[in-house]
What we know:
By secondary structure, the protein is α/β, with parallel strands linked by helices.
Amino acid sequence: MGLPFISSRAKRRDQVVAVDLGVRTTKAVHVQRHGDTFHLVNFAFVDSPIFEKNSPPDVLSDHLKNVVRTLGYKAKLVTLALGDGETVFRQVEVPLMPVSDLRRTLKFNAKAYLQQDFPNHAFDCHYVAGSSQPTKAAETGKPAAPAGGVQKQKALVGGVRQETLNRIQAACKAAGLVVDHVVPGAVGPVNSFEMAEPESYRSEVVALVELGFKSTAITILDCGEIALNRVVAIGGDRLTSGLAEALGISYQEAENIKVGMASEVAQDLEPLIHPLGRELRASIDFFENHHDKAVGKVFLSGGSACGELIVQSLQTELMVPCQIWVPTKGLQMAFSSDRMGDLEQLAPKLTVAVGAAAASF
């Protein structure tokens, strides 16, 4: 599942560097393809600069230089994943047409399908293939005539401001890089999960919960199909800030306690987790009531997912088994063994970056 707003792809890639531009921390992976297997060559975590509306363009270009330098990457092509605050991601039903025509239709009449105007946006689409016909028709531009009425097909739609794309392209150019793809971060967990847990992806009803810095995204998969995607405006930042205020300590101290010693402050942390659990439970209830199916398991990822108490508290609130999952599970490791300890601890934070890389091959 790609949804690349920008694609410079001229041929099949044998290596991809994907950068997840986070609010607090930028995560990046270097993945190589060897036949049917994928190898994780390196990964990196770099503190994100503070971006203001009128930040000089060189702030982002210098940051990207630092990221690829940390990875030890010598080539120029990069894939960038943008967060929920910068992208639109929806599943809609649209008349079956070539993807290029659908992009133009959304550009000039987004409200008809997305129930909201998105001026000066670039769009890309991915048809959800219920049969071979829709995909083939979308590629050829010659859909078969329906028996009656207009033939429609489910499509995943991603959008981003053209101004944002222009800024990213300019920053990459200044950094000596070339944008291979720009993708919405929302597709990252789905792609990563398909690689890491293929059996659960294909045959189960599961919820993927990505605990981000400013927000949390929940995606419910019904045997590989996205049935629900929602962003909740509660993230790790609110938990850490609330804990710091409750304990009268610094933000950094609260962050360390939240992840490493949360059980010792359970009485202060659990009330902060409950609102997030209620929002996620409401999303699960909505799906189950409309589809008459039960979510069997919740897979958690993201920075705050590393805290055991948070996982336990969410499981109590959601009343569904919850577990942390590892997005790099489907990859072969191709770096020195002394970094394996770091990867085991940090892997849940790489979900979006690994998924963005998968979208680019």
